[in-house]
TrEMBL record:
This is Predicted acyltransferase. The chain crosses the membrane at residues 59-80, 101-119, 131-148, 155-174, 213-234, 246-264, 276-295, 307-328, 364-382. The lineage of its organism: Bacteria, Pseudomonadati, Bacteroidota, Cytophagia, Cytophagales. Residues 21-171 form the Heparan-alpha-glucosaminide N-acetyltransferase catalytic domain. PANTHER family: LD22376P. The keyword Transferase applies. GO terms for molecular function: acyltransferase activity. It holds the Pfam family HGSNAT_cat.
Length: 390
């Protein structure tokens, strides 16, 4: 990955210093992460506009596209970061590049686990899967696939994953249930989660399954592969106009394929269904193609740098935006009625919510305030050329 986090090293680099780096990719990554911070930090969880919530089960909202967009970007980034490694001798590659990939994946996984662990530090109930954990596993799998296979083989692997997952979920009988199904608690992925991970260590809201569970990580790897194929195409020596035209065309076809597949394998983020992979992957291709044309080809720069600042420190802001609210909630402030609330909620109630009559508008204002604060921090880091890396 081009943008990642480390707790032990900070390097100062110019984001534009690499000639192979796409400014549009940093912008697209930053826009995605800013959206992720926005939907993860409403002022009031009880009052959220529908597009900023996940679909209850089948179907999708704009919020459901954010995570697969990021995994797609991980796949694109792999092609820029690892393309030169393919020419290394096998022994050198094994000792050097693969070792770095494994260490980076382990660091991301442990950061995600720490987020789940903090602040209770209860090993008996800590959630094991999570967003950073899935990013780590997808990065690891896709990096190894990229180093060991050709683009054609990657396409075959993608098709095998999507068709194989569809058959697993719709044909294989679920132990204890007796038939294949796609219901929340009785599908095959849910059974694997509570059998291997155990209910005490899955997503507490779902209770007996996890939206970032084991089996559904397989099609998530497919999302990363779509990104790798897109990145390989962007790095090809073909004329720019041809690359953009084909990206738009294939993006439309892949999106259409997801909508068609939705008819018999419903689009579902929690299950990361194959139709969902195609829908999100196709839309991500279209989004990146548009950014690439505007920013890298047409040289459009107005208003993009704040999102570029988000993009070059993407994992940093995701990790800290999860940590800081939890730390703030540890600081309890007494209320006139004798109760206590966390400092984050106190600031929201005192300074953000009062001007608004509609609680949804107030909640949205709280989320936007949080994003704007991060804009300021990341803009300062960008101007100082600070990128926190693994």
């Amino acid at each position: 990955m081009q943008s990642s986090v480390s707790t032990h090293s900070v390097s100062k680099l110019r984001p534009e210093s690499s000639s192979s780096r796409l400014l549009s990719l940093d912008f697209f990554r930053g826009l995605t992460v800013a959206a992720m911070v926005l939907v993860n930090n409403p002022g009031d969880w009880a009052h959220i506009y529908a597009p900023l919530e996940h679909a209850p089960w089948n179907g999708w909202t704009p919020t459901d596209l954010i995570f697969p967009f990021f995994l797609f970007i991980v796949g694109v980034s792999i092609t820029f970061a690892l393309d030169g490694a393919r020419s290394l001798e096998p022994g050198v590659r094994k000792k050097g590049i693969i070792g770095k990939i494994v260490r980076r994946s382990a660091t991301l996984f442990l950061l995600g686990f720490f987020l789940n662990f903090f602040p209770k530090f209860d090993i008996t109930t800590v959630r094991i899967p999570g967003v950073l954990q899935r990013i780590a596993l997808v990065y690891l799998a896709c990096s190894l696939i990229f180093l060991k296979t050709t683009s054609r083989q990657q396409l075959y692997i993608l098709c095998g994953i999507l068709v194989g997952y569809w058959l697993l979920m719709t044909v294989v009988p679920v132990p204890g249930v007796g038939f294949a199904n796609l219901e929340p608690t009785t599908n095959l992925a849910a059974w694997i989660d509570r059998t291997i991970i155990m209910p005490a260590h899955v997503y507490k809201v779902a209770k007996v399954w996890d939206p970032e569970g084991l089996l559904s990580t397989l099609p998530a790897i497919g999302t990363g592969i779509i990104g790798m194929l897109t990145g390989t195409w962007l790095r090809s020596a073909r004329p720019v106009a041809e690359k953009i035209a084909w990206l738009f065309a294939v993006g439309c076809l892949v999106t259409l394929g997801g909508l068609i597949w939705d008819g018999f394998f419903p689009i579902n983020k929690a299950l990361w269904t194959s139709s969902y992979v195609l829908l999100a992957g196709g839309l991500a291709m279209l989004g990146l193609a548009l950014c690439y044309w505007l920013i890298d080809v047409q040289n459009y720069r107005r208003g993009i740098l704040p999102f570029v600042a988000f993009g070059v420190n993407a994992i940093t802001v995701f990790f800290l935006s999860g940590m800081i609210p939890r730390i703030m909630n540890l600081i309890q402030i007494s209320q006139p009625d004798g109760t206590e609330i966390g400092s984050k909620e106190y600031l929201y109630r005192t300074f953000i919510a009062p001007p608004f009559t509609d609680p949804k508008n107030a909640s949205l204002a709280g989320a936007l305030t949080f994003v704007l604060i991060w804009f300021g921090i990341l803009w300062w880091m960008y101007r100082k050329n600070v990128i926190i890396k693994v």
